[in-house]
Automatic annotation (TrEMBL):
GO terms for molecular function: DNA binding. Pfam families: HTH_31, MLTR_LBD. It comes from Streptomyces liliiviolaceus. This is Helix-turn-helix domain-containing protein. InterPro entries: Cro/C1-type_HTH (IPR001387), Lambda_DNA-bd_dom_sf (IPR010982), MLTR_LBD (IPR041413). Residues 43-90 form the HTH cro/C1-type domain.
Length: 280
C-alpha cells in the first residue's frame, strides 16, 4: 500500500480549522440574537464571528478561504475568544500562524535528557518513560517495559507509543478502550504537527497512521486538538491480567518538548496485578 505524505500547509489548515470551529458553535450559547430566517449552515455566520472578534467580515472570509493572510497575535487572541477555543486549540491556532515557540519549533528532541533518563529509573517501581512530542519513547524503566513491551527489542524508529497502539501485534490489543486512546493520540499529534512543521519524521508517521488505520484516519479528520496531562487507562495484560492505571504527564521546564509519563495503579487489584508483571 502506498503511504501518502502529510505536509503542513499552514494557511489551508488554519482556514479549515477556523471553519470547523465556527461551525460547531451554537449561536444560542453565545447569547446572539435569534434570526427569523433559518440558517443554511451550522454554527455561527462569518458576520457573527467578525463582530465578536472585532474584525471585518471580509477579513474572516479571506482567512477561511486561505488567501495568504498572516494574522497578528492580537487578531488570533480575538478569534480564540470569539470561537471559544480551549487552551489546546488556542495554542494550535497560534502554532499554525507561527506566533508561538519559534525558537524550538525546528529542533525536536530525539533523545532523552540524561537527567530525565535517570529520573525514570529512580521512579521504580512505578512504570515511567520519557516521550518526545511525536510520542517516541526515548527512555523507560523496566516496569514500563514489563507493562507494555520490551522496547529494546524494537528498532528505534518503532519505539513510538502511537505506532505500538496502532500496529504492534501485542500492544494494539492491550487497551480496553482503544478507540479513546487512538482519538486522544491523534489530538495530541495534531498539536505537535502544527508546532513542529519541519519535522519530516512526524509528517511521515501521521501519513503512515492515516493510511493503515481507519480509526486514526477518522480521528485525524475531526481536527480535535487536546494534549492530556493526566487520566486513566485500562489494559488487559497477557500475563498480569487487567490493570487500571492513572497516568500523569510532566513537562520539564528546561526540556519543553519532552514529557515524563508516570503510571500509578488505580486500585488495589491493579496494584496486585502490577506485582505480577515480568521484568524486562
Amino acid at each position: 500500500m502506498t503511504t501518502r505524505t502529510v505536509d503542513v500547509d499552514a494557511t489551508q489548515e488554519l482556514a479549515a480549522f477556523l471553519r470547523t470551529r465556527r461551525e460547531r458553535l451554537d449561536p444560542d450559547d453565545l447569547g446572539l440574537p435569534s434570526r427569523r430566517r433559518s440558517r443554511r449552515t451550522p454554527g455561527l455566520r462569518r458576520e457573527e464571528v467578525a463582530e465578536l472578534a472585532g474584525v471585518s467580515v471580509d477579513y474572516v472570509v479571506r482567512l477561511e478561504q486561505g488567501r495568504g493572510l498572516r494574522p497578528s497575535a492580537d487578531v488570533l487572541a480575538a478569534l480564540s475568544r470569539a470561537l471559544r477555543l480551549s487552551a489546546d486549540e488556542r495554542a494550535y491556532l497560534f502554532d499554525l500562524a507561527r506566533q508561538r515557540r519559534p525558537d524550538t519549533a525546528e529542533r525536536p528532541a530525539t533523545s532523552a535528557a540524561p537527567t530525565l533518563a535517570r529520573l525514570v529509573e529512580d521512579l521504580s517501581p512505578l512504570p515511567a518513560m520519557v516521550l518526545n512530542h511525536r510520542y517516541d519513547i526515548v527512555a523507560w524503566n523496566r516496569e514500563m517495559a514489563g507493562l507494555l513491551v520490551d522496547f529494546a527489542t524494537l528498532p528505534p524508529a518503532r519505539r513510538n507509543s502511537m505506532w505500538m497502539c496502532l500496529m504492534h501485534p501485542r500492544t494494539r490489543e492491550l487497551y480496553v478502550d482503544r478507540e479513546r486512546v487512538v482519538r486522544e493520540g491523534a489530538a495530541h499529534l495534531r498539536a505537535a504537527w502544527a508546532a513542529y512543521p519541519g519535522d519530516r519524521v512526524l509528517n511521515d508517521l501521521i501519513a503512515e497512521f492515516s493510511t493503515h488505520d481507519e480509526r486514526f484516519a477518522r480521528a485525524w479528520a475531526e481536527r480535535d486538538v487536546k494534549v492530556k496531562g493526566r487520566g486513566r487507562k485500562v489494559m488487559r495484560h497477557p500475563e498480569a491480567g487487567e490493570i487500571a492505571v492513572d497516568f500523569e504527564v510532566l513537562t520539564p521546564i528546561q526540556d519543553l518538548d519532552q514529557r515524563v509519563v508516570i503510571y500509578r495503579p488505580a486500585d488495589d487489584e491493579s496494584r496486585s496485578a502490577m506485582g505480577r508483571l515480568p521484568t524486562r
